[in-house]
Write a structure and sequence with these properties.
The chain is of the alpha+beta class and 257 residues long. Helices cover 27% and strands 29% of the residues. The chain has seven helices and twelve strands. The relative contact order is 0.14. A hairpin with an 8-residue loop joins β8 and β9. This is DUF4261 domain-containing protein. Pfam families: DUF4261.
């Protein structure tokens, strides 16, 4: 079983390189994190630090592009955002957002999402957000909107990504990335032959369930969207990512998944 990461990271990309100024960022932080406090001691450098319910959010601007290339997986496999490279190409700066400590990984994820939303509000040219744990890129406006609607829930669709690929036999393989940060195994399946978008949605929903409930799926358990669907769960070595153990899903109508 994986141990949850103590720190979660995200990068907010700034198209024109302009970074959030102190007062604008402070006002946005107060709106998105009204319980945030500043530490008694100053932090060296230009990093802004806030204390929230025993956790720490650190925000620092960088006047250089984020280290993301066109052939990186976060760009090449961003099937949910087909125009991702034109949207971020030539961006001139980025803001590093980190959340560490707190009660648990869910609390850190909530803090990260709200801190990112604050940075987006204070950065008019914010064009995208890269979530390190899931290695996923998302439009900045979409992230801000989704986080504002998430309430007390962690922003699972951003913290967990689904990598989809074609099997040699013509089906679809999938594996999540990001559940390790919550102390959970990733979810994997192969040979899926229905709409990949439905598979993506199902895996994200299952990831959210595991994040909320913990490691509750035993080897041989069955799950499904309804009482008639029996998807078998096996705790097995990954085929897609050798060296990892995963929750491997076997869909009843898909053959050997």
């Amino acid at each position: 079983m994986a141990a949850p990461n103590d720190t979660m990271l995200a990068l907010v990309l700034s198209k024109d390189g302009r970074l959030p100024e102190g007062e604008a960022l402070g006002s946005a932080i107060r709106r998105h994190l009204p319980q945030a406090q500043t530490p008694e001691k100053d932090v060296p450098g230009d990093t802004s630090v806030f204390l929230v319910d025993g956790a720490i959010a650190a925000i620092g601007g960088v006047t250089e592009p984020a280290p993301i290339a066109k052939d990186d997986p976060c760009v090449a496999y961003a099937w949910h955002w087909q125009d991702v490279w034109p949207a971020i190409e030539g961006h001139a700066g980025h803001v590093v957002v980190a959340a560490t400590g707190g009660a648990d990984a869910k609390a850190r994820a909530r803090l990260l999402g709200r801190a990112v939303a604050a940075v987006i509000e204070a950065t008019p040219s914010a064009c995208a957000v890269h979530f390190a744990g899931s290695d996923a890129l998302w439009p900045a406006a979409l992230v801000a909107e989704a986080v504002s609607k998430s309430g007390d829930e962690p922003p699972v669709p951003f913290c967990v990504a689904v990598a989809l690929g074609r099997d040699p036999e013509g089906g679809v393989s999938a594996i999540t990335k990001g559940l390790n940060a919550f102390g959970l195994m990733e979810i994997e399946t192969r040979g899926y032959r229905d709409d990949p978008r439905e598979l993506n949605g199902f895996l994200i929903d299952l990831a959210a369930f595991l994040i909320e409930s913990g490691d509750v799926l035993g080897d041989g358990d069955t799950i499904g969207p309804d009482a008639d669907t029996k998807i078998v769960v096996r705790r097995e070595a990954s085929v897609v990512a050798p060296g990892q153990n995963v929750y491997r899903l076997y869909f009843p109508t898909q053959g050997h998944a």
